[in-house]
Amino acid sequence: MDFDQKLAFFRELICCGHELYLSVFDPALRVVSSNCPFADHIPALLSLAGDADRFDFLSGFTSPAMLSGKAELLWILDRGIDGEEPRCFYLLGPVFIEDVAAQRLETAVTALGITGGEKRELVQQLAAAPMLPINHFLDYGLMLHYSLTGEHLDAGTFRFVDREEAASPPQEADRQRSSHGTWAMEQELLRLIEEGNPDYRKRAARLVGRGKMMPLGGGSTLRHIKNSVIIFTALCTRSAIRGGMSPEAAYTLSDRYINRVESAGSFEEVANLNRLMQDDFVQRVRDSRVSGDSPMIQRLRQYLDTHPEQTPVVPELAAELGYSPSHLAREFKKQTGQTIQQYLRSRRIELARLALRSSGESVQSICHRLGFSSQSYFAAEFRKAVGLTPTAYRQRNGLV
Fold it and tell me: Which 8-state DSSP code applies to residue 388?
């Protein structure tokens, strides 16, 4: 299979999962080929129109890059093979990683100076761009790179570039800082966790790939990734404690994720656990900040949150906390508006929603891990609370 055949096969392959566009530009940013209906507008959407040299800062990188565009659009850029003369730019996308209001798309298109019917058409075309998890988009980028070069990479080799960075080449000091991860990136992620920031996922996505760590696994890529996630889990634990989560609850949660990462058998599973761990800590910090519970009820909530698979025995919980069962149950209902059983059920559903939209864990595994007695009971309770079955909920969030 020659180069053109491989590229054509890749175009057909990606359309089996999502309708993604692939555009090829020459060094002057002229369209060579594209299945994107608005290909001529792509340079402007990436704030590169009239300045082809802005792609040149990538010439020193051997791995693909993820670019952010106007209206939260994301793209993957690859330079192709060394034998090309001149080398073309291969651009995959755009995609969204979460819902973007139509007004933001309209504002972005208006800023390009486009009006009338052409504006309406472009807004509609952009709104039709697929929304998918960022790790899935990275996987497509890895497949594109392999189609172009025959080289196997992992997602950790991607570099993320925003519009401001694209406007000015990175300085040597920036390259040196990224040789062992990006301190600023790490601190920003940890700060978002400490805040319980509701925009965590959107803001974290912009930081993907700005630095990378040196090998930590003795030559094993999976071991390196596991070690990196375990280290980051420990850092997230401390950030969550600073954000208001109790040390006992934070360390219990940390131990659970570390054990699951250690037993994971693939990069995808580790990546899913990493994303789920971060989302979980953010949610728990946010919950701890908005709660006005007494110390007694806070301790009970934290226990229920970190042991969702267990059916609580109220007399034992009350004895451990130093209260009578009736007093504990009465105070819990008074302060939370729910009985202990109702709270645990809603917490299990919330954790199930988090796992379904943030990981590739099977529905059966989620059901058993969260302590539901059967998969049919889990599906019925989930549908009662959410309005969808677990599988339908996952499909709506683009994870199958």
Answer: S
- Structurally, how many domains does the chain consist of? 2
**Is 159 inside a domain boundary?**
yes
Among candidate residues 256, 290, 324, the one where a domain is terminated: 290
Residues sharing a CB contact under 8 Å with residue 267, sequence separation 6 or more, in sequence order: 154, 155, 221, 222, 225
Beta strands 22-25 and 74-78, pairing class: unpaired
Q: Are residues 125 and 61 in the same domain?
A: yes
CB 398 within 8 A of CB 131: yes
Place of tokens 């555009």: 23
Q: Is residue 322 part of a domain?
A: no
Q: How far, in Å, CA of 227 to CA of 209, rounded?
A: 17
pTM confidence score: 0.46
Structure confidence by residue, pLDDT tens digits, 277-312: 988 899 888 877 665 667 778 778 878 877 888 877
Cα(399)–Cα(386) distance, rounded to whole angstroms?
17
How are beta strands 31-34 and 74-78 bridged, if at all? Answer: unpaired
CATH code for the domain of 30: 3.30.450.240
Q: What is the pLDDT of residue 222?
A: 72
**pLDDT(380) > 90:** yes
Task: Domain of residue 256: give its range.
Answer: 184-290
Whole-number Å distance between alpha carbons of 208 and 185:
9
- Give whole-number Cα distances, 325 to 181, 309, 315, 363, 399, in Å: 51, 21, 5, 34, 43
Specify if 319 maps to a domain: no
pLDDT tens-digit readout, 39-96: 988 888 877 544 444 555 445 555 678 777 676 788 888 876 655 555 688 899 888 7
Assigned token pair, 206: 């912009």
Residue 209 belongs to some domain of the structure:
yes
Ramachandran assignment for 50, one of left (phi > 0), alpha (psi -120 to 50 degrees), beta (any other): left
pLDDT, residue 382, reads 93
**37 plus 165 within the same structural domain:** yes
- Confidence at residue 100, expressed as pLDDT on a 0 to 100 scale: 66
Alpha carbons 308 and 367: distance in angstroms, whole number: 11
Task: Assess whether 218 and 113 both reside in one domain.
Answer: no
Closest listed residue to residue 271, CA positions, set 112, 105, 142? 142
Share above pLDDT 90 across residues of the chain, in percent, rounded to a whole number: 10
pLDDT at residue number 178: 41
